[in-house]
# Entry
Amino acid sequence: MAKPQRSGEYVARFGFNRKAVLVVLCCAAFTAACILLPDMHVLTRSAGLLLFGVGGLLFLVISLKGGVAFRADEEGITLGNPPVGVRRPELHVPWASIDEVVLFRQDAGAATVPHVGLRLRPGAPAVNTGIDRDGRVWQGVRRLVPHVPEDVLAHSRAISGWRLDEERLAQALDVHAPHVRIVPM
# Structure
């Protein structure tokens, strides 16, 4: 059962979505194949059961955990981390440091990945983003979204495994930070 939200608070959580259903169904199919195919080598069968059976079950449990992806409350904005994948510190940014909430898209071949980022006010205290801006990974990410300013990209998260409700976000901003605006990019 979800906790009731406080007045003006907006919380989006990671959860079980269509992508998770597809992954779990594929893992179940491969697990069934590993069990039912009679001529499979024992090492291949064992590896398949471990990868798809145990891995799929682990993915299911992690998907159901539902950690905080995004929170806007009286203290500021929190950008969480996906339950699987690259681990970065959660970003907790107070309202006094935020100038804009920026919505942008990353082209990923045939699809696009929506993101939410924060543009900090000039002179705002630094926030630990967990990013090595001199590293190759960062340089690769920069090439994928050249239209997004570096500071916004560093303070952003992909909207994947959760949904951003722009109307509820706007309501939370009206209540807690009327000086902050939502900017599409």
Remarks:
- The chain has a mean pLDDT of 85.
- Residues 12-65 form one domain.
- The chain has five helices and eight strands.
